[in-house]
Specification:
This protein has 316 residues and is of the alpha+beta class. It has 12 helices and 11 strands. The longest helix is centred in the middle third of the chain and has 19 residues.
Length: 316
């Protein structure tokens, strides 16, 4: 499926990579991101019905097909403009977990849930009831210990005196001050330079790498993939340079690290990053400096864009 066929995939981050995607959004507006359910692929036929050249529904199992439903919360517009108040999606996800409702992916202001083709009104009604209850708890400034009791039990000093509305506002202000959405977009637009062959990085993983804090990683070379979910796309590949301290990669990872420290219990999914249990520092596997000397590196290869494909994991 093409990027323009599923425009809201990964919260639209892939769509906005291309001039045609931005042009489509400028013309159709936010409604474009809400029409994210293509069901027909020319080569396969309909994914819901047993027709088409090779009966895509039979192969993929129409009775086991899932809808990806992205819920967008107040706080930020699709073009990145921020509202003065919001409900960050991570807080809602934690509340739904308290009610045994599983969320597939959670972004800053979007939540992705999966519905099967045969879902009943009773099942999706459970989600709707939970959303309405959450709104009521937010509007009445219910103490957080009544909304997220397990979170408050784990972190009583951090959250014990907060209300649901108060936590939402505090988290939103942090995300706005950190400009996390712009940091994410920049990290996937300004791609890092590949300087060491991936096979050499793999050898380093076997024989030993240097595990460095972000504050010490500027100018170094990654030895392993770093993937942040969402969007579920590698932000750093083996052999790529991490760049300057204020460069796209370290700025983005630093913003995630600061968020995790400020809001324990709402950590980001950063694969390929080790978190120091005592300090909360992000640690990156780096190639040893003697291996990454310029004299030993091949000619630079132009980086390729990392765009979600049909095989990419679903993300909000």
């Amino acid at each position: 499926m093409s990027t323009t066929g599923t425009p809201a995939h990964a919260g639209g981050v892939a769509l906005f990579k291309f001039p045609v995607g931005r042009a489509l959004f400028n013309y159709y507006g936010e409604r474009l991101l809400r029409t994210d359910l293509p069901i027909f692929v020319d080569e396969l036929g309909s994914l819901f019905e047993h027709n088409g050249p090779i009966s895509g529904a039979r192969i993929f199992g129409a009775d086991r097909t899932y809808f990806e439903v992205t819920l967008t919360w107040p706080g930020v517009h699709a073009d990145g403009r921020s509202e003065p108040w919001c409900i960050p999606a991570r807080i809602l996800t934690s509340y739904l977990a308290e009610r045994d409702i599983v969320v597939e992916k959670t972004d800053t202001y979007t939540t992705l849930v999966l519905f099967s083709m045969g879902i009943t009104k009773g099942k999706w009604g459970t989600l709707m009831d939970a959303l309405m209850d959450f709104k009521a708890l937010h509007d009445t400034e219910t103490p957080l210990r009544q909304v997220l009791p397990r979170l408050v039990e784990r972190h009583p000093k951090r959250y014990g005196r907060l209300t649901l509305r108060g936590l939402s506002q505090e988290m939103h202000e942090h995300l706005t001050d950190a400009d996390l959405i712009d940091a994410l977009d920049t990290a996937f637009q300004d791609l890092p330079n590949p300087v060491v062959p991936p096979q050499r990085c793999y050898q380093q993983l076997i024989w030993g790498t240097e595990r460095l804090r972000l504050t010490h990683a500027a100018g170094r070379v990654a030895a392993a993939v770093v993937t942040v979910t969402p969007a579920g796309i590698p932000v750093l590949m083996p052999g790529e340079a991490l760049g300057a301290p204020d460069g796209p990669v370290l700025r983005y990872l630093g913003a995630l690290e600061a968020f995790d420290r400020a809001f324990p219990g709402f950590h980001n999914e950063a694969h390929g990053v080790v978190i120091d249990a005592d300090t909360g520092d992000y640690l990156i596997e780096c190639v040893r400096e003697e291996i990454a000397r310029p004299s030993e590196t091949p000619d630079a290869v132009a980086p390729t864009r990392r765009t979600p494909t049909a095989a990419s994991p679903p993300a909000s």
